From TrEMBL, chains A, D:
GO terms for biological process: glycerol catabolic process. This is Dihydroxyacetone kinase subunit L. One of its GO terms (molecular function) is glycerone kinase activity. The keyword Kinase applies. It comes from Gandjariella thermophila. InterPro entries: DhaK_L_YcgS, DhaL_dom, DhaL_dom_sf, Dihydroxyacetone_Kinase. One of its GO terms (cellular component) is cytosol.
TrEMBL record, chains B, C:
It comes from Gandjariella thermophila. GO terms for molecular function: ATP binding; glycerone kinase activity. GO terms for cellular component: cytosol. One of its GO terms (biological process) is glycerol catabolic process. Residues 7-331 form the DhaK domain. This is Dihydroxyacetone kinase subunit DhaK. It holds the Pfam family Dak1. InterPro entries: DhaK_1, DhaK_dom, Dihydroxyacetone_Kinase. Keywords: ATP-binding, Kinase, Nucleotide-binding, Transferase. PANTHER family: TRIOKINASE/FMN CYCLASE (PTHR28629), TRIOKINASE_FMN CYCLASE (PTHR28629:SF4).
Length: 233, 333, 333, 233
């Protein structure tokens, strides 16, 4: 069993909750090396996503992701708006018209999302941006996928799907890696975005966008686990 | 946080409603999405000049909408760049058939959002170009930064290019002029205090009684260096010298000197600082031929100032002097 | 104390030098004694309008010197009324033979110093009259006070009477008009923060994070009442209601609404407050036909605002709309 | 021996010193119920008086008082400038062309000064102004004069002058009364000047102008005692 439209919606609901809970933390991180709006921008954006989703009838995960993308683009503003917007847009394109997403499709969507952010923002690993959370997350997701595939190939003798209960594992791996990646931004000197104006003074602070990316992936992973009937680990 | 507001979430829209009430003949204001356009837009056959950015820098940009300057402004949330739909809505309100020039300050968020808007507008067949201004010498322009920020020079660019558009200079001409202004303008700012974004509720940074911050931008972000506060002579020198060196300005150059308050610095101090800058420039043989003094690009209630110097040519002087009628800048009309 | 100054003792003179540098075509500035006069003074055959008061309220008054408004301003030390010699010097610089009208804000110091100057000038044969403006409804006008203070209404008076003088209305006419403006204008102000006079070095008063001061004047003096800070709706209502009651303004009246910042309040908040005032006035059936929004009579870096309402007649509207060219107020020229 | 031109100059020098020493106190008093400039205004004014006196050759006490008056008027500003200016001007007129002032002339000059302040400012006793210091001072000076006259009439059999050593006594009496008068302003609600805008909130504060008047009279009294060869009491 894969990840259906209502699972994606539930996951975004969870993202909205988590972002709202962490709004002030993100604001504070952004005050330190930016302009203090990241938490409010993200909160405003996902709140808008929620009302858009409530008003719409959507029948594929791709449609949900696409509405999320356009809503973020038109309500977030700042650097994060177009970057997260592009991420969701690319993820939507990656999953196409599928009505249920396999773990493999989820991992592919993550890769597409991350590549979209890089294409738009031109940041590399180590520039102290959300890319420092997203890129390790993609790699971890793909490794988890490969592990799961190898495992199921070994045990079940070549099932074609990695299995619906692969989605929680893939997203959990992504979230774990994103958190580590976000933490890794602390000592870095920023080279992209507003924090780069601070030069050396940007070192010693967690990047707000990397933190929000890690929160977002953790919310998705929690939602996936819950959908699969899992409990807290 | 002490502010004359009702709700941090509605500050921008509430303020725009007040602006609409204050300038009924001059402006047409919409709040969903937020766009401030000149009342008579679109002006047929004229290049439309559109700018925008986070709110909190008033009068920039909405205060510069009107004949002889901007056709529309897109105010984002406080210190947050506007979204592409705002820019698109502005473009479609003011496009008079001769093309649209977007004036974008060089911040990642502004550039990304305006780029997206320009792509969308181009897809609809409009001739939409953008110029990115990056006049802040406090930031090293290198591979290791997001490039220099757009600050005070934006005001001068909008006036000069707005005047050219008013005289029916075509889109190529307006774009080339904008690039010439960008190539010839440099700025540097400083702060004595931070400022408080309504939805944050606390100052973006705090300075001790004996500290100042040099090389700040306009978003309440910390500057490049924190140092002991100095007197006016010291402050003006610290702002002016890097500005002069960067272009570089040379003896005999004609210049427009723009002494800007970050919002909370009283006019009595600003004129005092302006006088010092004029003296220092005279000593270097730079001829100040035009000046602008006041709070024109601000960071809410921040106390501090910036200095912008534009190297003038005859055409820029003529366009600077041309009539302008906006909420914040008005002459000859 | 954080200020962009060199020496508290020379702030006013240093600032005036910067003002002179900033407006070389418009102003003629002397510092001993301090007088800011229009560059082309005296204008023969025109009533000269002269005002003055303590510094720290910029752009009032020097920012209103120029064609269509004041002929000269006398800036005193910060928050200290000017001395009679300053006024005398201003009078002799601008008297064009048609008499001089002194615009005096009602403070004991201002009244005494201007009175002395008028006596001295009269002794020298000039036709010098003075009008005292007292539009602040926060102060009870009774035997037990120095009377109401002159605040925001001063700006409107100087514009309207300046325009009349520009049209060669004679001294009697200018004086009568000034009195009509005074009879029809009312103001009230409030503060969220105090302000720091350079030679004092500490705020004249301090307010807690949750306090505001209602009924302040423009000299950083405490107001009539300290109370819990309110939102913009509450603040505007507290300013507007006593103003409306005092004249009183009635349904159908035409009015000029002037929403003024005390200096440190950002424009985004000021427009927001202005919008509320417009709404409240519309609810009462008062027709706002002209408006002015901005920092025009300030108390250094104080955060706060005032509302001034002038009951308009056709002549006042025409004079308000007439061209004016000063550092701080300019249109039609 | 009365009070000669150089004594008056020396006394004004002492006034300048005392005002400079108490500048901050006067500023603070004025911050509480006014606009915080009184100390600086007075300091600026008397400093200007000093340089004017240094640059001038004056041969009568009246000329010194007149120069003091015009200098205060042209440099102090505010309410205090014209009020103290008028006070010194009236005192100058009262002493006329005399080259040495008797105690009686000093007392008369004080009365003229106080009447000048009242004529200009229209304040009455109890309005919480400098008048609350000046009026008691005048009465005390006149009582001291009368006492001294009675005493010298009784002892020396009708000398026409109350005697040069009457001046310190007259001024000391005036200074004592002015200090009491100034203190009496504390509980009052102001009815004149800037403090009146505060209404009831002006009660509980010492009036800055009353304080500066008391300081000024104390400085004059000290100088007169010193000129007469007296020591600290
Ligand atoms: N070029 C970029 N590429 C990727 N991420 C970026 C880039 N620039 C900024 N960011 C991310 O955006 C975050 C800031 O977002 P936000 O505060 O919403 O926008 P703004 O900087 O415009 O105020 C940063 O913490 C960083 O992670
Ligand atoms: N009408 C008046 N008559 C007598 N004294 C007055 C009057 N008004 C004010 N004063 C005195 O002037 C003092 C204030 O002087 P100052 O601070 O220099 O002037 P301002 O009030 O103009 O700032 C008050 O403390 C009071 O003693
Ligand atoms: Mg930010
Ligand atoms: Mg931002
Ligand atoms: Mg004063
Ligand atoms: Mg005072």
């Amino acid at each position: 069993m894969g990840c259906a439209t209502e699972d994606v919606i539930a996951a975004l609901r969870r993202v909205n909750e988590v972002i709202a809970e962490h709004r002030d933390e993100l604001v504070d991180l952004d005050r330190e090396i930016g302009d203090g709006d990241h938490g409010e921008n993200m909160r405003r954006g996902f709140e808008a996503v929620m009302s858009k989703l409530d008003m719409s009838e959507l029948d594929t995960p791709g449609a949900v992701l696409k509405l999320t993308a356009t809503t973020l683009i038109s309500t977030v503003g700042g650097a994060a708006g177009p970057l997260y917007g592009t991420a969701f847009l690319r993820a939507a394109n990656a999953v196409g018209a599928a009505t249920e997403l396999s773990a493999g499709e989820v991992a592919a969507a993550l890769r597409a999302a991350c590549e979209g952010v890089v294409a738009r923002g031109k940041a590399e690993i180590g520039d102290k941006t959300m890319v420092d959370a997203l890129q390790p997350a993609v790699r971890a997701a793909e490794t988890a996928m490969a592990d799961a595939a190898a495992l199921s190939a070994a045990s079940a003798g070549g099932s074609t799907s990695a299995g619906g209960d692969g989605v929680p594992a893939v997203l959990a791996a992504a979230a774990d890696a994103a958190e580590v990646g976000a933490e890794s931004t602390v000592p870095l000197v920023a080279r992209k975005g507003r924090a780069s104006y601070l030069g050396e003074r940007s070192a010693g602070h967690l990047d707000p966008g990397a933190r929000s990316a890690a929160l977002l992936l953790r919310a998705l992973a929690d939602a996936a686990r819950k959908a699969a009937g899992g409990e807290a680990p | 946080m002490k502010k004359i507001i009702n709700d941090p979430a509605t500050v921008v829209a509430d303020s725009l409603r007040g602006m609409a009430a204050a300038h009924p003949e001059l402006l047409r204001v919409s709040t969903k999405p937020a766009v401030v356009a000149r009342a008579d837009a679109p002006v047929r056959g004229k290049v439309a000049v559109v700018s925008g950015g986070g709110s909190g820098h008033e009068p920039l940009h909405a205060g510069f909408v009107g004949p002889g300057m901007l056709d529309a402004a897109c105010p984002g949330a406080v210190f947050t760049s506007p979204t592409p739909d705002q820019v698109q809505a502005a473009v479609s309100q003011v496009d008079g058939g001769a093309g649209v020039l977007l004036v974008v300050k060089n911040y990642t968020g502004d550039v990304l959002n305006f780029d997206t808007a320009a792509e969308l507008a181009a897809a609809e067949g409009g001739d939409v170009r953008s110029v990115v201004i990056d006049d802040d010498v406090a930031v090293k322009d290198s591979l290791y930064t997001a490039g220099r920020r757009g600050v005070g020079g934006t005001v001068l660019l909008e006036k000069i290019v707005g005047a050219a558009a008013d005289r029916k200079v075509d889109l190529d001409g307006c774009e080339a002029l904008a690039r010439r202004v960008i190539a010839n303008v440099r700025s540097m700012g400083m702060a004595l205090t931070g400022c408080t974004v309504p939805h944050v509720g606390e100052p973006t940074f705090t300075l001790a009684e004996d500290e100042m911050e040099i090389g700040i931008g306009i978003h309440g972000e910390p500057g490049r260096e924190r140092m002991p506060a100095e007197n006016a002579d010291g402050i003006v020198r610290r702002l002016l010298e890097p500005v002069l060196e960067d272009l570089p300005f040379r003896e005999g150059d004609r210049a427009l000197l723009f002494t800007n308050s970050m919002g909370g610095t009283p006019l009595i101090e600003l004129y005092l600082a302006h006088g010092i800058a004029e003296r220092l420039l005279a000593e270097r043989g730079i001829r100040v031929e035009r000046r602008l003094v006041g709070p024109f690009i601000t960071s809410l209630e921040m106390q501090g100032m910036s200095i912008t110097l534009l190297k003038l040519d005859d055409e820029m002087i003529e366009l600077w002097d041309a009539p302008v009628h906006t909420a914040a800048l008005r002459w000859g009309a």
